[in-house]
Specification:
This protein has about 130 residues and is mainly alpha-helical. The protein is about 50% helix and about 5% strand.
Length: about 130
């Protein structure tokens, strides 16, 4: 079991392009992400690094509001977003060959959970999601 998680994490690191970067609005500006392979990489990354939602949301809420909000609201958002990130990862991995949502758009923002530490705001739905 541990070996399969390690292999999935390694594959995610190999597939996810390193050149992508998130702006302060949390939007990814790398066009390589708008492909089936990019969607597959996002899915693998989300399934293997979903736990980063916890510290990431604490950091984002602290940056946007204050430390008290980070430790309360950020903690709650982080705990709630872990299963969301994991399930979105499963969905994106399984539906990678399909251009759903249109143009392989990410379902949640920030695209990767480590983007919180690079200035992305708190978690929210992607642009194609109502």
């Amino acid at each position: 079991m541990k070996r399969s998680f390690a292999l999935a994490g390694l594959l995610a690191l190999l597939i996810v392009p390193v050149s992508g970067h998130a702006d302060t609005d949390g939007r990814d500006h790398d066009s390589d992400q708008d492909t089936a392979l990019g969607k597959f990489g996002r899915g693998l990354a989300a399934m293997t690094t979903g736990v980063l939602e916890l510290p990431g949301n604490i950091v984002a809420e602290t940056r946007e509001r204050n430390p008290a909000a980070g430790m309360t609201l950020g903690l709650a958002k982080g705990i709630g977003m872990i299963p969301v990130r994991e399930l979105v990862g499963v969905y994106e991995t399984v539906t990678a060959p399909l251009a759903v949502p249109e143009g392989y758009e990410p379902i949640i923002r920030p695209v990767y959970p480590w983007d919180y530490f690079q200035g992305s705001s708190s978690a929210r739905p992607g642009p194609g999601v109502s």
